[in-house]
Every structure is written in structure tokens, then in C-alpha cells.
Amino acid sequence: xxAIKSLNRNKxxxxxxxxxxxxxxxxxxxxxxxxxxxxxxxxxCFIPDVIKFGIxxxxxxxxxxxxxxxxxxxxxITPTLSKIIETVLKFRINPKIICIQNPLQRGFTKNAxxxxxxxxxxxxxxxxxxxxxxxxxVMLDAKSAFDVVKHSSLIRKLFHMGLTPQEILxxxxxxxNARSSVKLNGEQSKCI
Length: 192
Known about the structure:
By secondary structure, this protein is of the alpha+beta class.
């Protein structure tokens, strides 16, 4: 399975102690069991809650006061099996999204760099300067945008992009009943 082969190696084990290497080196028998499990999950558009659990660890950004929570970012370790489901969904959905994506979209796009966008902006500014036209750029700092995504709006957008009902239900189910606990100084909190 391509989804298993594409997992990032040398990462921390998940809540259940499973690493990408366990699945990558698990052989054909494990892959066939996983495929049966995933096929059932996609057939019924259902992701078991047991694989929607993450452990969040605050990591210091190496700047500022260690006592200030703003100087930490959260790293969440999710179950390896959920990463496989996400990867399968990505393989199915990306070709549809790339076809209708704005050609100027550069961030989070394969084989594209935000630097290309800055080049386009620079050329636009130079051309306007030559034509003696005023140029105004409005910039958006979206560094925290993913923290405040309104999932219902995202799901609606996916529907309008032409995703199948099955794909939309699977994405929606990934986030329903998702839980996390916080791990700090060797102690782990209750689920939130």
C-alpha cells in the first residue's frame, strides 16, 4: 500500500506504541489486514474513535520566557493508523483540488514555493512602477489560521469543490469526537 510506504519514518510512537516502521516492515499479511480495515472504514464512512486520540506535548520555541505559554507550540502525536487514513484521503482528494486551485496559490502546494508568489508580486510592482501606477499590497499573516478553522465552513467548501459524499463524510468523521491529552514533564492529563 502506497499510504504505508509514504509514512514519515523515525517519528515518535503513537499512543499505542506503534511506529511507521512497524507498519512499513509489517509485510504483506499486515498490509492486507490494514487494507480490509480501511476498506470497511471507507465503505461505512466511519473512523473508530479509538484512532482519533492524540497526545499533545508543549515544545519550547527556544525564544522568550519559558514561563510564558505563548513561547510554546503544541506537537500532537496521533495514531499511526489515522495517518494512513489521512494519506489515503489525500491521495484521493488532491487531484481534484489541484485542478480547481487558484494558480497563484503557493503555500502547502506540492512543487510550488511561496517564493514564486513573491517573484510575481515583485514583477507586478516593477511593471506598475514603469507605468507610473500606484501599487498596494494587502498582506495576511495566517500563522495561526489553522487554530481557528471553522470546520462546518471547510466541509461546505469541500462539497462545492466536488468531493464525493464519502470523502466529505470521512473528513468530517476524522474530527468528530477527536480527543487529546496533554503530556508535560512525564505526566499525562485526562482527555480533553
